[in-house]
Design a protein that fits this description.
Elements: H1 2-21, E1 29-33, E2 38-39, E3 42-45, E4 49-55, E5 64-65, E6 104-109, E7 113-118, E8 126-131
Parallel strand pairs: 1-4, 3-8
Antiparallel strand pairs: 1-2, 4-6, 5-7, 7-8
């Protein structure tokens, strides 16, 4: 009888541990794009969380995962020394396209890892999301 109780207890603990690890995704995470910056610049969420970025600037931005292309200081004339960065650059995991002012973009992170991202229009804007 004691053996049966112990086995049931171990089985119950195992079930609780599995359910705890496979718990529901965290609540949706709100992010802002304001002052030519992603806010917050680094965030941690659980797998399955939907992150929504709201563009609070007056110009379009993107959320593009991967490594940002190099940026260069403006020329004295104000012109860019290189062609405008491509809006399709990045690693292809997340690419919002243009997020116009006052609009949003949402993405659900179903894969664990660290996702570095940048703005394809303004590559100096960088941030990261860690998914556990």
């Amino acid at each position: 009888m004691r053996l049966v109780i112990r086995l049931l207890g171990v089985g119950l603990l195992g079930t609780i541990a599995i359910l705890a690890c496979a718990g529901p995704a965290g609540p949706p995470k709100a992010m802002s794009i304001k002052g030519f910056a992603f806010n917050p610049a680094a965030v941690e969420v659980t797998k399955g969380t939907t992150v929504t970025w709201t563009n609070e600037d007056t110009v379009p931005h993107t959320v593009t995962t991967g490594i940002a292309p190099p940026t260069f200081p403006p020329l004295p004339s104000g012109a860019s020394p290189t062609p405008f960065p491509s809006l399709v650059s990045g690693d292809g995991k997340v690419n919002s396209g243009r997020i116009e002012p006052t609009t949003t973009f949402s993405f659900t992170f179903n894969e664990a890892g660290t996702f570095n991202y940048f703005c394809g229009v303004h590559p100096a804007m960088k941030a990261s999301i860690t998914v556990r």
